[in-house]
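Do me a favour: review this protein, sequence plus structure tokens, and tell me how the chain folds. Record follows.
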Amino acid sequence: MASPKSSQNSAEDHRPWGYYCVLADEPDHKVKRIIVYPKQRLSLQRHKHRREHWYVVKGEALVTRNDEEISLKAGQAVDIPLKAWHRIMNSGDENLLIIETQTGDYFGEDDIERSQDDYGRA
């Protein structure tokens, strides 16, 4: 089993809201498996270099995309355009599992502009 905090593909990267692992990291796309703990949410953020597609595998999500709030359940998906303010919240009582596909020209974690964050990172 991979150790947490490792930067290797398939290793878990733990955050206050849950954790993720990178399933694919290619020049033209990146794919992550993301777990969000119950009642937790990611920061309100946007990206200058990438678009995202979120597919809910398990659980219930409340997605903020600019001024929209979108409820999703297993089997549903949403697209996040370039430069759109967005966040995902686990609105259920079990872990939320999503697959995030990023497309664009840069996928570094430093391509995050945060507007609001429950964990003091904004």
Remarks:
- Confidence is low (pLDDT under 50) at residues 1-9.
- The radius of gyration is 13 Å.
- Residues 31 and 101 are 5 Å apart (CA to CA).
